[in-house]
Amino acid sequence: MIVFFIGLIFITVIFGFFFIFYNTLIFLKNRVFQALSNINVLLKQRNDEIPNLVEIVKHYAKFEKELLENVTKIRSGYSENLDVEGKATYSSSVSNQLKSIFALAEKYPDLKADKQFLRLQERITSLENQIADRRESYNWCVTNFNTRCEQFPFVIIAGMFNMNRYPLFQNKK
Predict the structure, then answer these.
(1) Residue 29 pLDDT class (50, 70, 90 cuts)
(2) Is 85 helix (H, G, I), strand (E, B) or coil?
């Protein structure tokens, strides 16, 4: 009878640890998805500001058609369905094109003085900074999840439930 109770306690403790470890991994996995969703929101907001910026720049920089077409083309490549690497590549491409547009203001003093342009430049710069912050948060969540999935005993549970590593959100040059 004592052996039965000891066995029952042992099995209960094993299942208790199993559930704790499993729930920890699920919590960390959901934090990764939450962090990626935060990045998606900001990418969409930045994407929504680009047509306004292009319209303002068109009025002043008539000879910069190629640059404006590139920005529009890159903007159309955004989709929430992109994987993390695709979003990182997209984000870097847009950031580089936006830097080119902001540098363009130096050539056109009237554009540089336009209040709408300045407001949009400030808004987009703010969004760029927020994206960088959210990217850091996402990478922290991913690193935390990936590390747990490699640690014992989490590695056993991660393997049982096919919990794979997530990629970091890295800017592509």
Answers:
(1) very high
(2) helix
Q: How many whole angstroms separate alpha carbon 1 and alpha carbon 65?
A: 86
The count of other CB atoms within 10 Å of the CB of residue 59 is 13
- DSSP letters, 130-163, are HHHHHHHHHHHHHHHHHHHHHSTTHHHHHHHTT-
Quick one: DSSP state of residue 77?
T
The CATH number covering residue 100 comes to 1.20.1440.20
Q: From residue 49, how far is each of 26, 41, 107, 111, 146 by CA, in Å?
A: 35, 13, 22, 17, 34
Mean pLDDT estimate for the chain: 85
- With a cut of 80, say whether residue 66 has pLDDT above it: no
Q: Give the count of domains, the chain.
A: 1
Residue entry with tokens 């050539």: 107
Q: Does 117 have pLDDT greater than 90?
A: no
What does residue 145 show for φ and ψ, rounded to 5 degrees? -65, -50
Which one, of 19, 56, 25, lies nearest residue 164 by Cα?
25
Can you give the residue range of the structural domain that contains 50? 29-160
Contact 21, 79 (CB under 8 A): no
What DSSP designation does 115 have? H
pLDDT at residue 26 greater than cutoff 90? yes
